[in-house]
Design a protein that fits this description.
CATH topology of the largest domain: Rossmann fold
Number of strands: 8
Number of domains: 2
Low-confidence stretches: 137-159, 274-285
CATH architecture of the largest domain: 3-Layer(aba) Sandwich
Order of helices and strands: EEHHEHEHEHHEHEEHHHH
Number of helices: 11
Strand order of the largest sheet: 5-4-3-6-8-7
Radius of gyration: 20 Å
CATH class of the largest domain: Alpha Beta
Strand content: 5-15%
Length: about 280
């Protein structure tokens, strides 16, 4: 298996390193709990890498997908094709959340991630495919294991790729510990690894996507094109949810309100974006 990186200290076998990381924190082997790893599986390339690495490491694990109700149909079908996958369905759909939260999801108010994607894994050691390479800034590995304090722990989201993420994290707010075994892998590392093991991956990558996620995600630069060209049905679902939100909370009657209808909220929502992002991710506004 390739994936060898040469450094001042010698060469690093990234696959061997990731496998060892997984074995080092095996909750059953460590005697920390009676339950195996909780592997958060999204249907993306990083999740596939984690899935294969767990098999290579020979560790017991639960492969779990949290259905968001706004995943692309291609992603949903791909996830369902994965052997031994467990799919958790949310108590509320995205469309119900929008109404209850009184606003659309935005880059600053990502309640959808917290409610729809971050469910499960309480009291468990959760494994994710978070990588620095998908952050706005890549941070070099500081080495070793770092446990986050309470202040930072309250901000952890499994989907985040922030530069301050660590190999091993503790989230006291959510009652879980998180291990990110490929945190220092590049995109090229991931694709080389998947190709070596014959993983075809999510079909959206063959359609030009560099990242896959929720349709209409405010963190994606594809948001408008996705909704109006690729998935117009989702556009209508968002507009209908925005209309119910406007009706329930009386936004149209408030003086100076620009949220006068579902269509008006939709137009505002798409405009509240910037164009300064890496491919597939944007900065906060």
């Amino acid at each position: 298996m390739p994936l060898i990186e040469y450094t001042i200290d010698g060469k690093i076998d990234r696959v061997k390193q990731a496998v060892q990381r997984i074995r080092n924190f095996d909750p059953l082997e460590m005697g920390l709990m009676d339950e195996p790893y909780y592997v958060a599986y999204s249907g993306g390339k990083d999740s596939d890498a984690i899935r294969i690495l767990c098999d290579l490491a020979g560790v017991k694990h639960d492969l779990v997908n949290n259905h968001t109700t706004v995943d692309a149909p291609e992603t949903v079908r791909y996830i369902r094709s994965i052997p031994h996958i467990k799919i958790n369905y949310p108590e509320q759909t995205m469309w119900q959340l929008i109404v209850d939260r009184k606003m659309p999801p935005t880059m600053r108010a990502r309640y959808c991630c917290e409610v729809l994607k971050e469910r499960g894994g309480m009291g468990r050691i959760v494994m994710t495919g978070v990588r620095w390479a998908e952050s706005l800034k890549r941070k070099t590995n500081r080495g070793g294991v770092e446990v986050l304090g309470k202040k930072r722990a309250s901000l952890i989201l499994n989907a985040d790729n922030d530069e301050s993420r660590r190999l091993f994290e503790t989230c006291q707010m959510k009652g879980k510990r998180v291990i990110n075994p490929i945190i220092d892998w590049s995109d090229a590392d991931v694709w080389e690894f998947l190709n070596h093991y014959g993983c075809t991956s999510n079909p959206l990558y063959q359609c030009g996507y560099h990242r896959v996620g929720c349709v209409g995600c405010p963190m994606s630069h594809r948001q408008k094109n996705e909704l109006e060209v690729n998935y117009p049905r989702y556009k209508n679902l968002y507009i209908h949810a925005f209309q119910r939100m406007v009706d329930r909370w009386g936004y149209a009657e408030k003086p100076g309100s620009i949220w006068t209808s579902g269509e008006a909220v939709y137009d505002w929502w798409l405009r509240k974006k910037t164009i300064h992002q890496i491919d597939g991710q944007e900065t906060l506004w």
